[in-house]
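Reopening this one. Same input as before:
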Amino acid sequence: MSRLRAPHPVARAFAVLADGLIVLVAGATALAAGLMVAGAIGTGTADVRLPSTAKAPTAVPSASASVAAISPAPTSSATPLATFVPSLEPVPAIVVLPYRSGGRSYAGIEVRPGTVFLAPLEGTVEVRLYQYINNDVRVGSNVPSLPFFPYVTVVSSDRRLIFRPGALGADTELLVRDAQQVDVGAPLFRTIGPGRSSWATFYDPTIPFQVVASLQILPSGRELDPLIGYLAD
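Same output, byte for byte:
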């Protein structure tokens, strides 16, 4: 009897490889059968779905929706910073300032056109008209081509108050007559123009005042503070 020979190592390797291929083919066949079953199930009337493990998508608002829902913050150009503006106080109709000339005290009065001067004391009115002729101040003259400047004086029992406004007709309108009796608060004259007091023409061209006033005690003639006399009740 002949002895069986052991298979050659190469033949053994091919046998193992063949067995592996058989197993692989069998696995592929089973996979194909499973796919067929799945397809058959998918064509049925019942739609069977496995729960998905994926997260539900989050709704993201569109750009137009964002613009409609959220108002943009105002920029510096749309809302400028507040600027401090000091409140403007109304300019008083009469401003009285101390003024000295030739060693004497006067009141320099600045007013707006349309201001009416009232008598600060009761007494008798004196009205004198002056003109400036050839560098000389004259009273009682009558040169039509030159302006007339009125002096309006109120004389009480113990005081004399003199107002020296601007040119008659152009800057000053008289509201009283010479020798007229007036009470406290009676209208004396009205400024109708921005022209300065006759004092600027006669004596001091640098003054800004529309009226220059002075106050004296009678009968001595001693000067009083014209500010006190003018503002007295």
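So the earlier flakiness isn't reproducible anymore. For the record, Residues 94-231 form a domain with the Glucose Permease (Domain IIA) fold (CATH 2.70.70.10).
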